[in-house]
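explain this:
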Amino acid sequence: MNNPTNAQGGVLAPIEGNAGTVAERCRLAGGLLRVTLGDLREELGYRRLGKYVLDEVAETLTAEGLGWFPAWRLSPRENSEPRKEHELWVFLRDGGLRSQVIDAIQAPDGSDVPTVLNGLLADRPKDLSPDRKLGLIREILGL
């Protein structure tokens, strides 16, 4: 088990048997990684996953330069009964197209949405079907 001081320090620590922290594994995976709330809880050294642990997880991921989706998974107001098997995607907030698209979708007030979404179509035919546009978003997200 991880050192419980991890929870107080807000630092991700490797889970036994895993190669590095979520942040390290995300970087090694090309900037996108699927994890469970249980993985994140263990890395912070918590034994239980209460709804207020979600705030600590969110703050730690942000401090590590990571974002996540769906955003509601780490919101105590929206996820009042978090479960260790709940999955979320963690991504690098590196300013790349993937990060820009996710941020534009999750927080459109803080993004130049038309520019970001038009960036999806750069060097691509203008007459893409809605299905093909969704396919491009899935491609960017690595799904």
Observations:
- The mean pLDDT is 79.
- The CA atoms of residues 66 and 92 lie 5 Å apart.
- The beta strands are 32-36, 66-69, 87-92.
